[in-house]
Amino acid sequence: MTHAYLSVAGISAGLAVLIMAPSFLGEYELGFMVSLMSYVTLATAWAMFSGPTRYISLATVAFFGIGAYTVAVLNEALPYPIVLVVAVCLGALLATFVGFATLRLAGIYFVIFSFGLAELVRQLITWFEVNITGTLGRYIFLPFETQHIYWQLLALAVVTIGLGFWIRRTRLGLALKVIGDDEVVAAHSGIALARTKVMLFVLSASLMTLAGAIQSPRWVYIEPTIVFNPTISFLTVIMALLGGATRLWGPTLGVIPLLIIFEWLSASFPDHFSIVLGVLFIVIVFALPKGVLSALEERIAKLRKERVT
To answer: In 3-state terms, the chain is what percent helix, strand and coil (to 5)?
Structure first.
């Protein structure tokens, strides 16, 4: 009980510091915190589905970009809260269609399809803008300063982590774990495979869409090459895998060090950034397949066993 109270007190104190961060951070540091909260949401939402089911999705940027473009198109026509609702509905609709159509695929086939989906959405929007509207980019005029975007993303990150915590303690979370271990066993146990996977895929995609919608005013001007950049998908996967996609706090643990490294690399070695990203992805998959948290837990368990013997 004492441990639970200490955990709640620690989380509450950390959250209070994060809420007050704009009052003592400069503009650059606050911009970094905006990226941090965005990737905490993306990586946690990605792990919510891909962690237990082991489906490696590279479609993160498809939903992120849809959220950003929805705000760009509707920001002058509808109130901001309504625009966010429309963005989430579009992301959920696409995820539902994709989920029922493709979640029977597994392994490398799903990875390839999810990457192709992101490219397809980007190319369709580019074609529509160039051939129908006669322009490629759009401006976003919303009266938000950096701290307003930061607080929205912080709230979304807290909700996303809270949902992840709740799902792990429900029958839905247990069903996903069984599906990830063996789909045949899950089917024989009476678990509705398609409905369970699609439900979590839609929830995960909706959170990613909302992250893109909230962050879009930060750029003021957007175009498909910015909000549908494949690097967003790859960074999300690497961050989640580094911390541990099967752990609640794993994605957050992976986001913090990698975002600092990527900020430094993109500023110091912009021409070699993609090469370093690829190498890092390979190293993490081979050296830490279960993530840092799992490696630490295994190490601690081994040390305890050695002390007993």
So the answer is: 80, 0, 20
Name the token pair of 50. 């891909």
3-class DSSP state of 46: helix
* CA dist list (Å): 57 to 106, 180, 285: 11, 14, 15
Triad 127, 113, 280: Cα angle to 5°: 100
- Which residues fall within 8 angstroms of residue 83, CB to CB, at 6 or more apart? 70, 71, 74, 75, 213
For 146, list phi and psi in degrees, rounded to 5.
Answer: -55, -40
Report d(CA 192, CA 124) in Å as an integer: 33
Burial per residue of 77-110, b for 16 or more beta-carbon CB atoms within 10 angstroms, e otherwise: eeebeebbebbbebbbebbeebbeebbeeeeeeb
The alpha carbon of residue 273 and the mean position of all alpha carbons in its chain are separated, in whole angstroms, by 21
Taken in order 181, 186, 191, 194, the sign of the CA dihedral is: positive
pLDDT tens digits, residue range 13-33?
889 999 999 999 888 899 999
Q: 226-236: per-residue pLDDT in tens?
A: 889 888 998 89
* Among 45, 12, 35, 8, residue whose Cα is nearest residue 251: 45
Q: Which amino acid is at 136?
A: L
